[in-house]
Amino acid sequence: MQKQESGKNNLKFLAFEVTGVNSMSRKHRKSFNGLWLIPAILLTSASAQQTNTSAGAQAPTPAPKTVVINVWPGVAPGSEQWKQPETTLGTPGNQRILNVTTPTLTAYLPAPSTATGTAVIVAPGGGFVGLSIDSEGHDVAKWLVARGIAAIVLKYRTVQLEGQDAAQLNQSSGARFRTQLSNLPLIDEDGKPGIADGIQAVKVVRAHADEWGISPDRVVFTGFSAGGMITAYTAIQPDARPNYAAPIYGAPIASIPPIPQGMPPFFMTMAQDDNLAGQYILRFYEALKAAGYRPEFHIYNSGGHGWGMRKQGKTSDHWIDEFYYWLEAQGLTHPAR
Distance between CA atoms of 276 and 269, rounded to whole angstroms? Predict the structure, then answer.
């Protein structure tokens, strides 16, 4: 299903001025750069705490149990030689994590009395350079667990950056973004460890299904921006597909992978003025349709890129309500009968 704002009746209104990195004017390239950095630099502590409470709103529930486990039993494969220390920048509610070497899952588990048996894996965005861990991670998880849904935040591996302090790390991350923009296949390369972590995360969550009180056939994978790209790639895997997939303003960037049979149901969102990932999200949506799938697709009038749980006074503020309604339509907001 495709949701459109008033007065819009097809996808043609999405007139993106950017058709490729090499064809951008300096003005548009600058705008593109800025949008790509939104998840990392535009979150504010106050707005990150302002989350919607309408869909599935409930009376106060018992505090959720929180469990943190490693994604891999030992050193994550492919990062044996990584030496840069993991670093968290920003303040609580507005944090981003750089140089993730040891991927983890933080599971927010509802009380048995309110548990639905559904699990949602949440992959933050950040261009595979960093992770917007609050607005696109823990804040999402807290919203979901308050509604009886086990929410598991995936802290996946990011590209290694040089730097001894925040200023140097910010400089290194900015340089990497610019390099990605001039060489889109580099995004795929930078994303390989995170994608591997996402696939493994699905396996780990199912392995803990009994312990965590979830159903192994009710595993949802959602991700933001780069995390949305991870979501798409987990959905095409033959051996570890989630049962449902929800990329939020994210999709494969450099190219569309082959679309196999047996893909899970999709929920997708974007804003019309997303000049970063918009064209790639539309391309992925059309590829799914061409392969015979019918993803639910919400297109908002505005909102840009990287909004997460921030409130901007726009209809895109309510993406999580509509995500919840979609989960409800799949029968995932109540225990299986």
Answer: 14
Three-state DSSP state, 131: strand
Amino acid identity, position 333: T
Task: Give the distance, in angstroms, between the CA of residue 139 and the centroid of all CA atoms in the same chain.
Answer: 12
In sequence order, the β-bridge partners of residue 300 are 271
Task: For tokens 């991350």, name the residue.
Answer: 173
Beta-carbon count within 10 A of 77 CB: 10
Average pLDDT over residues 87-100: 94
Can you name the residues that pair with 107 across neighbouring β-strands? 67, 152
Residue 84 is classified by DSSP as: P
Residue 3 has pLDDT above 70, yes or no: no
The pair of three-digit structure tokens given for residue 1, joined into one six-digit string: 């299903």
Q: What's the mean pLDDT in 221-247?
A: 96
Cα(161)–Cα(171) distance, integer angstroms: 9
Beta bridge partner(s), residue 154: 105
Distance, CA of 75 to CA of 88 (rounded, Å): 20
- Cα distances from 229 to residues 27, 198, 207, 246, in angstroms, run 26, 10, 24, 10
Q: How far apart are CA 181 and CA 220, in angstroms?
A: 30
String of DSSP letters for 262-327: SPPPBEEEEETT-TTTHHHHHHHHHHHHHTT---EEEEES---S--TT---SSGGGGHHHHHHHHH
DSSP one-letter string for 145-176: HTTT-EEEEEE--------SSHHHHHHHHHHH
Nearest to 141 by CA among 71, 212, 223, 37: 223
Q: Report the distance separating Cα 246 and Cα 265, nearest Å.
A: 8
- Homologous superfamily in CATH for domain 2-7+63-329: Alpha/Beta hydrolase fold, catalytic domain (3.40.50.1820)
Q: Count CA atoms within 13 Å of residue 179 on its CB side.
A: 14
Handedness of CA 138, 139, 140, 144 (dihedral sign): positive
- Delimit the domains of the chain by residue range: 2-7+63-329
Mean pLDDT to the nearest integer, 254-279: 96
Angle among Cα 301, 304, 309 to the nearest 5 degrees reads 100
